[in-house]
Amino acid sequence: MVALDAVPHIRRGVKCTYDQIRESHVVLFPEGVLVLNETAASVVALCDGVRSVGEIALSLGDVYAGVEPEDIAGLVARLVERRVVDVDG
Q1: Which one, of 67, 55, 76, lies nearest residue 8 by Cα?
Q2: What are 35's strand-pairing partners?
Q3: Is the dihedral of CA 69, 78, 1, 85 positive or negative?
Q4: CA distance 17 to 3
Q5: Where are the domains of the chain?
Q6: How far is residue 48 CA from its own chain's centroid?
Q7: Contact 79/44 with Cβ under 8 angstroms?
Q8: Distance CA 21, CA 79 (A)
Q9: How much is the pTM?
Q10: Using an 8 Å Cβ cutoff, are 26 and 36 in contact?
Q11: Contact 30/58 with Cβ under 8 angstroms?
Q12: The predicted structure's pLDDT at residue 1
């Protein structure tokens, strides 16, 4: 699990884009392609190296109902495992 005060950022060589064919947000990285749902795409977009996981959860809470900081931390942890993001802290 990633700490709520950890600050995630997109890894070098990773590109976030919208795939017109799949009609979905995707993350392109050297090991492959990760298709994201709308919420996950919002999390990735906020992994800017400035906001903490807790701050990302607060921001998403303004847009989506039922956002739990622990869920965001879990998603960021999975993104770290997939080598899409790194965390500081």
Answers
A1: 76
A2: 26
A3: negative
A4: 27
A5: 36-88
A6: 9
A7: yes
A8: 23
A9: 0.91
A10: yes
A11: no
A12: 84
